[in-house]
Amino acid sequence: MNDLLSLEATLTLPSPCQPFAPEWPGSSNVNLWVKRDDAIHSVISGNKWRKLQHTLKAFSHSQIVSFGGAYSNHLHALGFACRELDIPLTALVRGHESATPSPMLQDLVKWGVDIEFVDRKTYQQRNTESYLAQLERRFDSALIIPEGGSEASAIYGIQEMVREVNSTVDFDTIMAPVASGATLSGIVSALTPKQSAIGIGVLKGEGYLENLVEQFLPLSDCAHSMKTNPTQNWNINHSYHFGGYAKVTPELREFCDTFNRTMPFHIEPVYSGKLFWALKDMLSKGAFKQGANIVVVHTGGLQGAR
Ligand SMILES: *Cc1c(COP(=O)(O)O)cnc(C)c1O
């Protein structure tokens, strides 16, 4: 517990919420801010800290088991936190051991994380009851955290982020990238009735991503799809996934490079690059009300760009 306090003392919280004024077509019609969750910590990346925070606070098991790919921001944040908190961590990593491990995996090794490679077929079972029961038998008294840290308690940490924003900016619209949907769920569940959220899908998942978001929403039995509930105050834009998760085009790479040379903070192509590209494109198409106050959530993840 004391370890957790000293870890928290190294985090920049509340994270800054800064005005953002790019010289992009259409940007002068609205007011923009960026919620800099990427600034929380150099390793414990943005929304991954938000999602893990309550789990780590309540931690009373003997060890943790969790999942991710070889570039996972979640495993990276969790691996660092577990080293700081002296919690044994087993990372079940999708795929096969490679002769050239990713920088993320190299960090995990350095931090004393036990890495086990899991073939794709087994990895697909990561949320099934029988596989989880099997893991529980094997890793006695372990806390098993789902991929991405996306579990019900993750929502609370994200809600806290929205409360921080609300205490500094009176916003109409808030934007964030969507992969597992937990972050957007947390945001939506913390909005006031006049506010709305736009998720930018970073993978091909029309319909699928909406279901994920609804599944995490508190009162999910009241949630309906857009068609049946026109008053729903959120939606996911699927025009900016660039072909799929972690898929990058030369144009997107160029956009990120230019952005990183000219803007006061950095982005990477998997999450924040697609988010800010979407923002730029939507501004140029007049997608927002004149004078709208828009907050863009920078969810971190810069380690993944290495
Ligand atoms: C994991 C991650 C996301 C996706 O968040 P979800 O809650 O899974 O939708 C977005 N941005 C960054 C930087 C991430 O690491």
CA(first)-CA(last) distance: 32 Å
The CATH architecture of the largest domain is 3-Layer(aba) Sandwich
| Number of DSSP strand runs | 10
Q: Please state how the strands of the largest beta sheet are arranged side by side.
A: 1-2-10-7-8-9
What Rg is obtained from the alpha carbons, in whole angstroms? 19 Å
Structural class by secondary-structure content: alpha/beta
Q: What hetero molecules are in the model? A: pyridoxal-5'-phosphate
Q: If you consult CATH, what is the topology of the largest domain? A: Rossmann fold
Low-confidence stretches: 220-228
Our count of domains comes out at 2
Number of DSSP helical runs: 11
* Helix content percent band: 25-40%
Polypeptide structure, described:
The protein has helices at residues 2-8, 46-57, 73-85, 103-110, 120-123, 129-138, 154-166, 182-188, 208-216, 250-262, 272-284; strands at residues 17-19, 31-36, 63-68, 89-94, 114-118, 142-145, 173-178, 196-201, 234-237, 293-298. With 306 residues, the chain is of the alpha/beta class. It has 2 domains: 2-44 and 152-305, Rossmann fold (3-Layer(aba) Sandwich); 47-149, Rossmann fold. Strands 1-2-10-7-8-9 form a 6-stranded mixed sheet. It is globular, with a radius of gyration of 19 Å. The two termini are 32 Å apart. The model is unreliable at 220-228 (pLDDT under 50). The structure holds pyridoxal-5'-phosphate.
